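Margin note from the TA: students keep mixing up input and output lines. Inputs are the sequences; the output is the structure of the whole complex. Example:
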Amino acid sequence: MLEWIQTHQQMIYIVILMIFVGIEVIGRVPSVLHTPLMSGANAIHGVVIIGAIIVMGQAEDGNYLAIILGFLAVVLGTLNVVGGFVVTDRMLEMFKKKK
Amino acid sequence: MELNILTLCYLIASVTFIVGLKMLSHPASARKGNLLAAAGMTIAILGTIFLYKDSEGNGLHNYAWIFAGLLIGGVIGTLAAKKVKMTAMPEMVSLFNGMGGACAALISIVEFNHLVKGYGAHLAAGGGPEFFAVLDKTTLLIILLGLIIGSISFAGSMIAWGKLNGRIKDISFKGQHLVNNLLILLIFGLAAYLLIASPAQTVPFFYAIVVLSLVYGIFFVMPIGGADMPVVISLLNSFTGVAAACGGFLYDNKVMLTGGILVGAAGTLLTILMCKAMNRSLMNVLLGSFGGSAAGGGAAAAASGGTYKEISLSDAATVMSYANKVMIVPGYGLAVAQAQHVCHELEKVLEAKGVDVKYAIHPVAGRMPGHMNVLLAEADVSYEKLLEMEQANDEFKSTDVVLVLGANDVVNPAAKNDPASPIFGMPILEVEEAKTVIVNKRSMKPGYAGIENQLFFQPRTSMLFGDAKKALQDLLAEIKSIG
């Protein structure tokens, strides 16, 4: 157990700190912004695309399962990222126009 | 050297995520925050494509596949996001969230296959049958976690998406919570068995977990009422965040870890904040107790209800034309009917007659917090005209006419004075304080919480039945004809 913590200590630090940052950062958000904020956060977890790119880029020639699944993962991940940011921007554009 | 630049890319991206999220939570800086995070994401993605090296120093290949995938996803994503109607925004978020979950689950499946291949090679080379001789348990644990959470998030988001656009109805059966709990126990039991007992045949167990997780995701969201979908989407959003973070662990990738956990934590808090706005606990939402206890509350209210009265278009037009102050309370009905433009038109015509028109916005009106603001903004309703709940409640006493457009539970006085009601304690818009209340609804059917609304039976209330857009157009014509 101790050994495990030792080898993964950087990761564990990041996890703990990010939990607090995540909570702190959106602590006092007005309810009007709940939806765009959720949508923005949705786009940010699209960072999973990086994993998909790595999977795709490492798939050996001839390993069709890995290629197909990896390709699908890249497409879906991109949908998440691009769609997420564009939708959020459209929502926020609505807010802007009123001024 | 290239690797150092990649580290820098990831560092920049991580910072933009944090700052972007911070900016997103303030109205003035929100849009810039979103763009900042998007820029960070672009840097991280490009950096990964061109600079990533595995532990042996090999770069990535299959560039054609990667770019094709990015292109297809990018084009479909942009088009879908640009084309979607404002009212369908919540579904869209849910759909994109599901894609992220599926992506995380797929990564886990591919990585698991790598493990199995590695094990096969190990056996062929004359190694012992012990599965964990060749890999470390942490890796499998992370793969399983990413798989389970990603699959649940994917299946759940698809159901939430279907529910919001009306394709899937609420389905619940007796003992569903028991079944759900057994399912999740089974999933984690299987995962634990894989990890601890390390059976010789791992593949069937792994795919059993995939299937069970998908089934759990469906069952988890199925019984929850449509009105609670925003909370569910927000929760699933934070799930996907955690699934993405699992990928970060797997590839020792700090930016995935940062982004994933950040969203996981922020998403969880946001979920709780949304529940608070409805004055309910997360457990209450997840157990879908609205469906269960609503029958009792509804029956009681119906018994005390009695008769309601209808108002003719011309009467409604007259009352509104000669009022000093009109307050419009929009709800989901307005969004469904796409009546926001007609609504703005009505507001302008009344203003021209010297009537003071304002909008009272309940924080959870519609299907998502902020739904009404977005909708009215689309129709160019000016920001100053939108009153938040507290301000609006101060003004109802001096309001002549309240026009309720397709809102129901957020104006139900049972939340204030009927302790037996399932929505008791939820802050509401106290429209019954106004001199006249005109309620536009399609029928007397109860709202999403499934309970009767005593407001409709009060002497000051009159009903104007019909689709919000149609009713408003007719009303507008009547008001114009008054001159």
